[in-house]
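## tool: complex_structure
## caller: assistant
## args:
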Amino acid sequence: MFGLGVVKGFGVTLKRFADTYIDDVKKIPSRYAGQRGVIDQGPEDTGIFTIQYPEEKRTLPERFRYIPMLLRDDETGEDRCTACGICAKVCPPQCIWIVRDKDENGRPITRPTEFYIDASICMSCGLCAEFCPFDAIKMNHEYELAAFDRYPKLVYDKEELTVLVSYYAKLYPTQYTEEEKARADKAEKKSK
Amino acid sequence: MLKARLPAETPELPSVTPVWPGAELQEDEIWDLYGIKFDGHPFLRRILMWDGFNGHPMRKDWKEAFFEEEGKPFSSRWPEGHHAWAEDRVPWHGNVNYPDHFDPETWKEPVTFEAVQDEPGGNGNGRLHTQRIVVNMGPHHPSTHGVFRMVATLEGETIISLKPVMGYLHRNHEKIGERNTFIMNIPYTDRLDYLSSMSNNLGYVLAVEKLMGIKPPERAEYIRVIMAELTRVCSHLWSIGFLLNDLGAYFTPALYTIRERELILDLFEEASGARMLCNYMRFGGVTRDLPTGWLEKCNTVVFDRLPRAIDELERYLTNNEIILARCKGVGYLSAEDLVRYSVSGPMLRASGLQYDIRKVEPYSIYDRFDFEVPKFDGCDVYDRYRVRMFEVRQAVKIVQQALKQIPEGEIQTGKKAYQVRVPAGEAYARIEAPKGELGFYIVSDGKPNPYRYRVRAPSFINLNALEPMCIGYKIADSVIVLGAIDIVLGETDR
Amino acid sequence: MSNTEATITVEVPARWQDAVPGAVLSEDANSVVVAPESLVALCTYLRDHEGYDYLSNVTGVDYLNFKGRDASNRFEVVYHLYSTRGAVALLC
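## result:
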């Protein structure tokens, strides 16, 4: 019958329309009531998929990557970075630049005095974090970085980039445990 | 592979467009980027750059504005870097450096038109005295899916000629690829067809692996296939949704498809860290193993959610009378012509030709899976839609098989290094990307960066067939014909 | 990947030479160098008689200061041909 296809199609829209209300009823208390928060939508969910950003936000998976961060040890206060420069060499848009520290005699030592990342050209590829041999640079989950000026707001220096290892451990629980285990194994092998 | 060698002075070659009209856009591109002239080409023009651009940028003696050295482009920033914007160091301020005898004031576009021509008209459909009108659609037009322009000459509402104009998103991906090291190119390939970054990764990685002579371990192969097929689902769902947008069903069908796509993007994000620009594959493996719980989630999506969603979508769209009326018989081009125009992908399979690279030249481990290549022979927009629907089902089927078979084990051959050693030589690898045949041609001279890095972009080459598919139809149909080609401008313009 | 590599062996049949004399200048492991003036004739022959009906990729390469190259053969235009009919062996 002519027109049946259109009618059937509208049946689908009608179902979806109903779904949004059924969804509301199922999720009591409603996600719109009270304080809004972090929304996690899985493959079982039906109904509305839109998220009312910025009041609501998605949960971020552990591997989410945005802008790099540098790790500093909680107890010793030492930076993990040794200024080896692999991150700068592998960075596709070349947004990292490092100045290596010198000792009293003017010889370079394994510590950066300056470390810049130009967030306005960083492409969030994560290669720096992937190839850092000292686990010193990781990808931060902080993505609300909008600023009015590129310079100096979006050129991050060492202090702005540095976070504590405990912060990293909270963002990346599984990865942190794995790395710590690998580190402990390595140390054990060395001591033997 | 045929090769023709040409001298440095006045390189000229006869055009092969009489044999394969599909060479037209590619020869335009070679003229634009290399300055090699093609005799007998119907309309040789600068297709990606404009006429006011001085020089041919892919030539090795043409250096980009901030060029310092190969492989490590901005060494001045390291180790004694001080902050400086790259654009402050542009030798041509404002990036204006015209070629000799070029005056921007008097310049006329190669695709020129007079808005109204009072030629003796009449398309034979009546006794009306008609005028030819040129309609310029784009570059900013919602139907063009990006910054793309169609210059259509009309008589009444019927298209009598249509020229694609592109290059608004051109960034010379290939030149960037030639100064980058091999591994730095992987995130750049994400940005080609940004709706299917996993496929682009796969194509590039396969080409380099061919040169290096390595193969990834079993588990990595399976992960790659799962990712590539999920990408196909994403890309086709997107394309179906936006085809409906072009038809005027504003955003309801598009959002229904995007909702399912969203779940796949969540899976990508959990595995790779990014939803669209995944940067997930490496030479000889993938970046990281799948996180715990990923396979279970993927199982729910692939076995439960997607089959239901596709059924619902079919119920919603496939027999809709309005869609049938708008799509059936529109944009007809026979299989023979499509092959001559170098068209690949779903368009070719909607013309009765079962040509799928996964079947005719299986790469990775596609020979292990049981799937069908669609065969529809309507050669029109409607069948291109049905081919996509069919391929989504087949892609889901492949992922289902892969999820059942995936073994445990390593995900990387050899040690992961930030600088890979690629032996000298050349390789061409092609894959069946969602949009069509995606090829990477790589020439290496043993240095850390490729000597030549070429992307055979399906979105670009499929546009060869745009004009012949539109001629004779109404101007409103050109929108859905373009929608059914399914271009992504990041890949078209590179 | 391995099964395709096996098919990538080019032996230019003598009949190419007979069909378009002087077109094939030289050949190596995976490519055939063609004389520019007889390119169109050879392509027509390949399309009509050898089944290479699909021109996949055309691209240029600039071999400036490349080992073994000089000004007389600085540029190269590369054509990748395939067959959509399946049965024909690849020329790659």
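## assistant note: The mean pLDDT of chain B is 84. The first strand of chain B starts at residue 2 and ends at 6. Handing back to user.
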